[in-house]
Amino acid sequence: MAAAPLAPHALYQEVAEHLRQRIFNRQLEPGSWIDEMALCAELGISRTPLREALKVLAAEGLVTMKVRRGAYVTEMSERDVREAYQLLALLESDAAAQVATRASSAEIQELDELHQALEQHVAQRDEFFHANEQFHLRLLAIEGNRWRQHIVTDLRRLMKLNRHHSLFQPGRPQDSLKEHRALMAALHARDAELARKLMHQHFQQGLAAAQPTER
């Protein structure tokens, strides 16, 4: 069914968000060519806001512009995935250590509540995926390093392009939940080094699940 046309006054940021969600929902698959004329007709917009939107998505890494070939949804190579996991492991493990040391009891309780959403949705992939992202982003917000948050948000956005995301693999949500339980125990115990170690291992296990041929 054709999408409803966007309002005539829609800005390129709205077009970018619309396309961003289509990419995340796999309506536009990684590696696929973006048919600009078809999208303009479908959304009821001119080429100008679409092209500006594509520039935004290209800056985010979600779209790759190829000379004389147009725009394509970015594909994550095995190396891209490995390097993204390595960076996330470093950044988020340090954040976990900081939270274990400095977070208030109320903030730890917030993480507990987000963890309970993981417990409730472990059998529902999309809900678990969302709850997992909310947990990690809230932990970063509590830690409070805005530069770390910016980098991790960009990396997590790109990770949504990964065809073999770890949480898509059979059994991985259950294993991830166990890792989150151990992390929460370390945060409650205010054990910074254990929290750092467990978060790092969490990403190592995620990488192993995302690249089954390397296991």
TrEMBL record:
Residues 9-76 form the HTH gntR-type domain. Signal peptide: none annotated. GO terms for molecular function: DNA binding; DNA-binding transcription factor activity. Keywords: DNA-binding, Transcription, Transcription regulation. It comes from the Bacteria. The keyword Lipid metabolism does not apply. Gene3D superfamilies: GntR ligand-binding domain-like (1.20.120.530), Winged helix-like DNA-binding domain superfamily/Winged helix DNA-binding domain (1.10.10.10). SUPFAM superfamilies: GntR ligand-binding domain-like, Winged helix' DNA-binding domain. Pfam families: FCD, GntR. This is DNA-binding GntR family transcriptional regulator. It comes from Inhella inkyongensis. The lineage of its organism: Bacteria, Pseudomonadati, Pseudomonadota, Betaproteobacteria, Burkholderiales.
